[in-house]
Amino acid sequence: MDSVIHIPAGERGIIRVFDLDMRAEQARFLREPGALAQVLGVDEINLDHVEIFPLNDLEDLGLVGYLNEGCGVPADQLAPDREHLMALSGHVLLIRSRAFDGEEVRLIPATPLTLIGTYSEYLTQRTGAPIQTDSAKLYTAPRLSPRAGRAKARRIGATLFTVIMLALLIILRVLVKWP
């Protein structure tokens, strides 16, 4: 057993890169429901936030380029591991924090999985004071009584009916020369 990897509750914006020391068929099998969770020693994992692929699919971009340009990992974070990442071959596994649905998890990866690095995605800082105006509050428009709502709906329906009937009469008059 390798060391335990602790994922804190509420973690976001982290990508973990694993080297898969296995045959291509085994790496493809990890995409099946439950297979990856078993290899990582967890109950379940959201496969929508997991990538398993052969490095030769990246062609000239390479893993460093993919992490930087495709995943938004800043280049200065990748610089210390650049040589190691470029030397990898075979298949890799990328797991985003969202794969654990914000819950605290302890990963116990099986032997063919080796953690290469943990990287932070570039996250925009959303800071600012909350808007305090009345128009920004939910449900601030005046509410109509049920009777007033039905009356408004009837007026709209009657108006729409009148417009359509007038349009039909105009069309009949033009096409058929009806008096």
Describe this structure in words.
The chain is of the alpha+beta class and 179 residues long. It folds into two domains: 5-120, no CATH class; 144-176. Helix content is 35%, strand content 18%. It has six helices and six strands; from the N terminus they run ββααβαααβββα. A four-stranded antiparallel beta sheet has the order 3-4-2-6.
Annotate the secondary structure layout.
Layout: E1 5-7, E2 14-20, H1 24-29, H2 35-40, E3 50-54, H3 62-70, H4 75-78, H5 82-87, E4 91-96, E5 105-107, E6 113-120, H6 146-176
Antiparallel strand pairs: 1-5, 2-4, 2-6, 3-4
| N to C succession of SSEs | EEHHEHHHEEEH
Average the pLDDT over all residues and give the rounded result: 87
Overall outline: elongated
- Quickly count the domains: 2
Q: How many beta strands in the DSSP annotation?
A: 6
How does the major sheet shape up?
4 strands, antiparallel
Helix-strand makeup class: alpha+beta
How much β-strand is present in the residues? 15-25%
Q: So how many helices?
A: 6
Distance between the termini: 93 Å
Low-confidence stretches: none
**Percent in helix:** 25-40%
What's the Cα radius of gyration?
Answer: 29 Å
Oligomer: single chain
Q: Strand order, biggest sheet?
A: 3-4-2-6
Task: Summarize it.
The protein is an alpha+beta fold. The chain is built from six helices and six strands.
Question: Which key terms come to mind for this protein?
Answer:
elongated; 18% strand; 2 domains; alpha+beta; 179 residues; two-stranded antiparallel sheet; 35% helix; 4-stranded antiparallel β-sheet
